[in-house]
Automatic annotation (TrEMBL):
Keywords in alphabetical order: ATP-binding, Nucleotide-binding, Transport
Similarity-based family: Belongs to the ABC transporter superfamily.
Molecular function terms, GO-annotated: ABC-type maltose transporter activity; ATP binding; ATP hydrolysis activity
Naturally occurring in which organism (per UniProt): Poseidonocella pacifica
Part of the full-length chain shown: 1 to 238 of 333
Protein name from the UniProt record: Sorbitol ABC transporter ATP-binding protein /mannitol ABC transporter ATP-binding protein
GO CC term (a single one): maltose transport complex
Record carries keyword Ribosomal protein: no
Length: 238
């Protein structure tokens, strides 16, 4: 589960083509990072995959199924936003359980899944607190917990650490990488931070003005950047 294919996916806002027709395959279980300068279309591409934006043309397939016209809730993808989007008046337990409650699970089933996610994320001792009583990193984990309980085919992260200070960012990077090791679920991670891309990715997709400049492992991009833009962007010695 979690194979995502983009076939000539294109996006224009009015007359402005933000994503020219683009092909990309993300394999099951891969940790893929979209990296590129601000405004290059990373968030738009992620939102197209999530179904939060409609494609102008082209096709998106998830596990072989044409998902192009499916609403976000039917795509089995979980988006983790940079703003935590937690409910301040609800406990951590209720925040994480929210999608399960919406899906109509009974209380016992909700508790089981929430406690499983909390254990994976080291949040067991914080379940009865409210978001205001947590650190930035803990809040980020709650947001991830809310995604985990839905057992998605893939997690989509849009610069999830940009609100955190530098020290915390390093810790959270490792936590997300560990989470990927444990869950082995496909993850697509958007960042403008080359270090994040190089340290976290199985596969990096370098974007410039909506075009894919190069796709490869961190080592491939480092050793053989296709052009000066990629070399400059990932800090390779070309
Ligand atoms: P990134 O996430 O890489 O910083 P975005 O995907 O947010 O880039 O934006 C890519 C381009 O698309 C930018 O020029 C941005 O202004 C434009 N854009 C994004 N969303 C919209 C929108 N809803 N309407 C018009 N233009 C948009
Ligand atoms: Mg963005």
């Amino acid at each position: 589960m979690g194979r995502i294919t983009l076939d000539k996916v294109r996006k224009a806002f009015g007359d402005v083509e933000v994503i020219p027709p683009l092909d990309l395959t993300i394999e099951e279980g891969e940790f893929v990072v979209f990296v590129g300068p601000s405004g290059c279309g990373k968030s738009t591409l992620l939102r197209l995959i999530a179904g939060l934006e409609d494609v102008s043309s082209g096709e998106i397939r998830i596990d072989g199924q044409n998902a192009t016209d499916l609403p976000p809730a039917k795509r089995r993808l979980a988006m983790v936003f940079q703003s935590y989007a937690l409910y301040p008046h609800m406990t951590v337990r209720k925040n994480i359980a929210f999608p399960l409650k919406m899906a109509g699970l009974d209380q016992a089933a909700q508790d089981k899944k929430v406690e499983g996610a909390a254990s994976v994320l080291n949040l067991t001792d914080y379940l009865e607190r409210r978001p205001g009583q947590l650190s930035g990193g803990q809040r980020q984990r709650v947001a991830i917990g809310r995604a985990i309980v839905r057992e998605p085919a893939a997690f989509l992260f849009d610069e999830p650490l940009s609100n955190l200070d530098a020290a915390l960012r390093v810790g959270m990077r490792m936590e997300i990488s560990e989470l990927h090791e444990r869950l082995k679920t496909t993850m697509i991670y958007v960042t403008h931070d080359q270090v994040e891309a190089m340290t976290m990715a199985d596969k990096i997709v370098v974007l410039r003005a909506g075009n894919i400049e190069q796709v490869g492992s961190p080592l491939e991009l480092y050793r053989a950047p296709r052009n000066v833009f990629v070399a400059g962007f990932i800090g390779s010695p070309k």
